[in-house]
Write a structure and sequence with these properties.
The complex is a heterodimer of chains A (337) and B (506). Chain A is mostly helical. Chain A has one domain: ABC transporter involved in vitamin B12 uptake, BtuC, CATH 1.10.3470. Chain A has 15 helices and 4 strands. Chain A has a two-stranded antiparallel ribbon with strand order 1-4. In chain A, a hairpin with a 2-residue loop joins strand 2 and strand 3. In chain A, helix 3 packs antiparallel against helix 11 and helix 3 runs antiparallel to helix 14. Chain B has 2 domains: 233 residues, P-loop containing nucleotide triphosphate hydrolases (Rossmann fold, 3-Layer(aba) Sandwich), CATH 3.40.50; 181 residues, Rossmann fold, CATH 3.40.50. Helix content of chain B is 32%, strand content 23%. Chain B contains 18 helices and 23 strands. In chain B, strands 3, 6, 7, 8, 9, 10 and 11 form a 7-stranded mixed sheet that branches. A 6-stranded mixed sheet of chain B has the order 17-20-21-14-22-23, sandwiched between helices. In chain B, helix 4 crosses helix 5 and helix 5 runs parallel beside helix 6. Chain B is globular. The C terminus of chain B is likely disordered. The chains are: A mainly alpha (337), B alpha/beta (506). Chains A and B meet through helix 9, helix 10 and helix 15 of A and helix 10, strand 19 and helix 15 of B.
C-alpha cells in the first residue's frame, strides 16, 4: 500500500509561492502597478460612458474569441480562417439584405454558409489534417469566394432594413451587441461546465489518445468546435454589417482592433485570457475577460493620447507576457511528483 | 575505507510534503547498490539529488570524501556521475554513433560519420552491442538495444558512478538479461552502479548491497546475500506482505463469455484463437513483441487487424473503435497509462468517470452530484486516495496513477476487462492491491484478460495461461500446471525442450 499523503489544502498565498517563480510574481506585480497607475491617471477613465465603451469595444472580438476557445480547448489549436469566414459572411448577409430578403432570411442564409464552411474544415481536421494548414487553405478559399461574389465592391443596403436593433439598438442603456456578448459568454461557460459536450472538450483537449480510448473521438469534436467558431464569426459579421449597413470583404482586415487584423486579435484574446494553447485547460470566461482586458488597456492608452503604433506594441507585449506567465504556471502545477 | 559517494541526513521537502526525511546513502568503488522502495518512498527524489537535477536539499553530500553540491546535471556529469532515466533521451532518427556523442566533453567538433562510428565502437562493445552497426538509425533497434545505446552514451562521458533508473521496466526477458549482464561487467571494471528497480529477482541477481527507502527514510544498506524476497518486501513495506497474489476463484468453464476466432492483429505472424469464461482471469504470457498485447488491443477496438472475429454474448463482431467496445461492456486498458490511460492535466474525478459520461447525464447535462458519488465509490474500491479527487491526475505517483487508469473502467461496469501490463512501474504494495481488485472483479463475474511480460505476475494471478512467442500463439497452460518455469519455457523456447536461459545469462 502506498502511503496516502494527507496535506492541508494550500491557501492562495502558499499556492502562489509554490507555483510561481519570483520572476513571474515580480512581472505580474510590475504589470499591475503600471495598469492601475494608467487607470488612475487617465482622464475620464472611470466614467460610466467610458466603461460601456470598453465593453462595447470588446464585444465583437470577444464573441469570436469565445467561439475560437472551444477549438483551442479541444486541442485543435486555432482556426486561421476566422477573418475570412467573417468576410464571406458579411458579403453573404449584405447581398441578401440588399436583395430585399429581410433580416431573418439573410441571417439564416449567412449562418448556413458559415456552418458549412466551419464543418468542412472540422471534417478535414478531424480526419487528421493539421489545423494550421487546413484553415490557412480555407482562409484563402473563403476570402476568394467573398471577393469574387462581391466583385470587391462595397455592398450597402438602405435603412430602415430591420437589422438596426442588432447594429445600433440598445437595451436598458446597454448596446445590444454588448448584451449579446454577455449572453453568449454566459451560455458558453455554462456549456463547458455543465454539459457532457463541455466535458468532452476538456478531456479530448487534455489527451486525445486517452479520449479515444475512453470513447470520445476527436472527429466529431473537431466538426462541432469548428462549427461553433465559424458561427460566432458569422454572428459578428452580421452585427457589424447591421451597424454600418454595408459590407466589404476587407472590413475585417483593417477596421478592427489596434493590430488591424481580426484573426490575430482573436487569437491574442484567447491567449491573453490564459487558455492553454495545447488544449484541456482554460475556459471561455477567460477569453471574455481577455477581450475586456485588451480593450481596457487600449482604451487607457487612447485616453492618454497614444497613437496606434504604441497600442499595437502593447497588444504584442500582452501576448508575450501571458504566454510566459501561463506556461510557467502550468509547469509549476505539474512539478510536484 | 571511505565510500566513493556518501550522503548523510539528506532532507528534501516540497511544500508540506517531506519527500526525503533524513536519508543516508553510500556506494563503494565497483559496487552494485540496489535502491528499492515503494512508489512515493523517495527513490526518484534521491536519484535526482545525486545526479544534480535537484539541489533544494539539506544535508551532506560527499564524493571521494570531499563535500560537493551540484547545481545542475552537467556539473554532476563532469564529476563522473551519469544517469540513465526511465524515459530514453535518444533521438530516434539519428544514428547510433551520433546519439552516443550527442553531448558531453568528448564530442568532436568536426567528424565524419565513419570516424564517429569508429570512436563509438569501444563503448558499444562495453555494453555488448558490438554486433550493431553504429551508422544505423536508433529507431531500427529494439527497445532493449536502445536502452543499451543510452548506457553507451553515458559511458562515453567516462562516469565513475552510473545510475540506472528501472532500465528493464519496458523490456522483455531476453533484453533484460542483456542489461543485467552488462551491469555486472561494468562493475567488474570498477564502475559503481546505483540500480533502481521494482523487479525483485533482478535485484537479488546482481546487487552487492541493497538500500531500502520507506516513507522518505532510509534503512541501513544490507548485503543482498543476507536478504531474501520476503524479508526485503517487509523492509520496504514496514510490514509483512502475506500474500502477493489473491487466492484463485471457482471458475465454471461451460460457456465462454468471449471467444476470438482466427483473430489476426496487424504485425503478428499468425491468427490467434482463445476464449475467456465469466469469472476467469486469463493471462496472456509473452515477451515484448510476442503479440499478446496486440490481441488485447484488437478486442478493445484500439488496433486494427487483418481478419478474424470475436464472438461475445451470442453476437459476432470486430470493434472498429474503442467506442464500440465500450458500448458492449468491454474495457481495454493499455500498457502505457501516460499515453492513453489518463488525462494527466484534468482532475482525478474527471478521469474516474471519463468512460461513462452518458450515465451521469440527462439530455446532455451533467449531473455533478451523481458523478461525484460514483467516482468516490469506484475510487474507494480501487483504494485511490479519494481526498485528492479534485487534484490533477498528474500529481499522483505511478502506482496511484495506475489505480486510476484501471479504476476508471469500473464506471462502465465492464463484463470483460482487458489489461495490458497491469502493474508496469508499480511498487510491490500497490501491485498486491491491484491484483486483489482484479480478483474481486472476477469473483463478481467479470472476465479479466491480462497480458504481461512479467512471468511471476502471470504465474501468480492467472487462472489459465495462453502463451505467445514472436507473433505466434504457442501454447495453453491449465491452472494446475502453471509455474514460472512452464511459462518461461513456452514464451522463450516453445519449439525445443531444453531450456537455455541459464546459458544466455552468461
Amino acid at each position: 500500500m502506498s502511503a496516502p499523503i494527507t496535506q492541508p489544502t494550500p491557501n492562495w498565498l502558499e499556492r502562489m509561492v509554490r507555483d510561481y517563480s519570483a520572476f513571474v510574481v515580480a512581472l505580474v506585480a510590475a504589470f499591475m502597478v503600471i495598469f492601475f497607475i494608467g487607470m488612475a491617471t487617465a482622464p475620464n477613465f472611470l466614467t460610466l460612458f467610458n466603461l460601456k465603451t470598453i465593453i462595447r469595444d470588446a464585444a465583437l472580438v470577444g464573441i469570436m474569441a469565445i467561439g475560437l476557445t472551444f477549438v483551442t480547448l479541444s486541442g485543435n489549436f486555432f482556426l486561421l480562417s476566422l477573418k475570412e469566414t467573417a468576410a464571406l459572411s458579411i458579403v453573404a448577409f449584405a447581398t441578401s439584405m440588399s436583395a430585399g430578403y429581410g433580416f431573418e432570411i439573410s441571417f439564416l442564409f449567412t449562418m448556413v454558409i458559415a456552418l458549412i464552411s466551419g464543418m468542412s474544415q472540422g471534417v478535414l481536421i478531424g480526419l487528421g489534417g493539421n489545423p494550421i494548414v487546413v484553415t490557412l487553405g480555407a482562409a484563402g478559399l473563403l476570402f476568394g469566394l467573398g471577393s469574387y461574389w462581391s466583385d470587391n465592391l462595397v455592398i450597402s443596403f438602405r435603412r430602415p432594413h430591420g437589422a438596426e436593433w442588432l447594429g445600433t439598438g440598445s437595451f436598458l442603456g446597454l448596446p445590444n451587441i454588448t448584451v449579446a456578448f454577455i449572453l453568449i459568454a454566459i451560455a458558453a461557460e455554462m456549456t463547458l461546465r455543465y454539459t457532457t459536450f463541455g466535458r468532452q472538450v476538456y478531456l479530448i483537449g487534455a489527451n486525445r489518445a486517452a479520449g479515444k480510448a475512453t470513447g470520445h473521438e476527436n472527429f466529431g469534436m473537431a466538426i462541432k468546435t469548428c462549427a461553433i467558431a465559424s458561427v460566432c464569426a458569422a454572428f459578428v459579421a452580421i452585427a457589424f454589417s447591421a451597424q454600418v449597413s454595408s459590407a466589404h470583404v476587407n472590413y475585417f482586415s483593417s477596421e478592427f482592433g489596434s493590430s488591424g487584423d481580426m484573426t490575430i486579435m482573436v487569437i491574442a484574446t484567447v491567449m491573453v485570457g490564459g487558455n492553454s494553447i495545447m488544449g484541456g485547460y482554460g475556459s471561455t470566461l477567460r477569453s471574455s475577460f481577455g477581450a475586456v482586458f485588451i480593450s481596457t488597456v487600449d482604451n487607457m492608452m487612447v485616453l492618454h493620447g497614444f497613437n496606434s503604433g504604441p497600442r499595437v506594441l502593447a497588444v504584442g507585449l500582452m501576448i508575450v507576457f501571458s504566454i510566459m506567465v501561463f506556461a510557467l504556471v502550468r509547469r509549476g502545477s505539474r512539478s510536484q511528483e | 575505507m571511505t565510500p566513493l559517494l556518501k550522503l548523510s541526513s539528506i532532507k528534501r521537502s516540497f511544500g508540506a510534503i517531506h519527500a526525503l526525511n533524513g536519508v543516508n546513502f553510500e556506494i563503494n568503488i565497483g559496487e552494485i547498490m540496489g535502491l528499492v522502495g515503494e512508489n512515493g518512498a523517495g527513490k526518484s527524489t534521491l536519484v535526482k539529488i545525486i545526479s544534480g537535477f535537484d539541489d533544494g536539499y539539506t544535508g551532506s553530500f560527499a564524493l571521494n570524501g570531499a563535500e560537493v553540491r551540484f547545481a545542475n546535471p552537467s556539473r554532476a556529469e563532469r564529476s563522473g556521475i551519469a544517469i540513465a532515466q526511465q524515459e530514453l533521451s535518444l533521438i530516434p532518427s539519428m544514428s547510433v554513433a551520433e546519439n552516443i556523442f550527442i553531448s558531453g566533453d568528448s564530442v568532436p567538433t568536426i567528424a565524419t560519420r565513419r570516424a564517429l562510428a569508429l570512436k563509438a565502437a569501444p563503448f558499444l562493445e562495453e555494453v555488448g552491442l558490438d554486433n550493431v552497426d553504429a551508422l544505423m538509425a536508433v529507431n531500427r533497434l529494439s527497445v532493449g538495444e536502445q536502452q543499451l545505446v543510452e548506457v553507451a552514451r553515458l559511458l562515453a562521458q567516462e562516469p565513475q558512478i552510473l545510475i540506472l533508473d528501472e532500465p528493464t521496466a519496458a523490456l522483455g526477458e531476453s533484453d533484460s538479461i542483456r542489461i543485467l549482464g552488462m551491469v555486472k561487467r561494468l562493475a567488474k571494471r570498477g564502475k559503481s552502479i546505483i540500480y533502481v528497480s521494482h523487479r525483485m529477482d533482478e535485484i537479488f541477481q546482481i546487487c552487492d548491497r541493497i538500500t531500502v527507502l520507506r516513507d522518505g527514510e532510509s534503512q541501513a544498506p544490507q548485503p543482498a546475500s543476507k536478504l531474501n524476497v520476503a524479508s526485503l518486501v517487509e523492509l520496504m513495506l514496514g510490514r509483512e506482505l502475506v500474500n502477493m497474489f489473491p487466492a484463485h476463484g471457482d471458475v465454471t468453464r461451460d460457456k465462454p463469455l468471449l471467444a476470438v476466432r482466427d483473430l489476426w492483429p496487424d504485425g503478428t505472424l499468425e491468427p490467434f484463437n482463445f476464449a475467456v469464461y465469466p469469472g476467469e482471469i486469463l493471462g496472456l504470457a509473452g515477451q515484448l513483441g510476442s503479440g499478446s498485447g496486440d490481441a488485447l488491443a484488437v478486442i478493445g477496438g484500439a488496433k486494427s487487424c487483418r481478419g478474424g472475429e470475436i464472438s461475445y454474448e451470442g453476437d459476432v463482431f470486430l470493434p472498429a473503435s474503442p467506442t464500440e467496445a465500450i458500448a458492449r461492456g468491454i474495457a481495454y486498458c493499455s500498457d502505457d497509462r501516460k499515453v492513453d490511460g489518463l488525462f494527466l492535466g484534468r482532475p482525478i474525478l474527471e478521469n474516474m468517470t471519463s468512460p461513462a459520461l452518458k450515465s451521469f447525464s440527462r439530455y446532455g447535462i451533467l449531473e455533478h452530484q451523481k458523478e461525484r458519488e460514483q467516482a468516490f465509490a469506484n475510487g474507494k474500491k480501487f483504494t485511490v486516495d479519494v481526498s485528492r479527487m479534485d487534484a490533477e491526475a498528474g500529481v499522483l505517483s505511478g502506482g496511484n496513477q495506475q489505480k486510476v487508469a484501471l479504476g476508471k473502467w469500473l464506471a462502465i461496469n465492464p463484463k470483460v476487462l482487458l489489461v495490458n501490463e497491469p502493474t508496469r512501474g508499480v511498487d510491490v504494495g500497490a501491485r498486491a492491491e491491484i491484483y486483489q481488485k482484479l480478483r474481486d472483479l472476477a469473483n463478481e463475474g467479470t472476465a479479466v484478460i491480462f497480458a504481461s511480460t512479467d512471468i511471476q505476475e502471470v504465474a501468480g494471478l492467472a487462472d489459465r495461461v495462453v502463451s505467445f512467442y514472436r507473433g505466434m500463439q504457442v501454447g495453453e497452460i491449465a491452472q494446475e500446471q502453471i509455474t514460472a518455469a512452464s511459462i518461461l519455457q513456452q514464451i522463450t523456447h516453445p519449439f525445443d525442450d531444453v531450456p537455455q536461459m541459464a546459458e544466455m545469462a552468461k
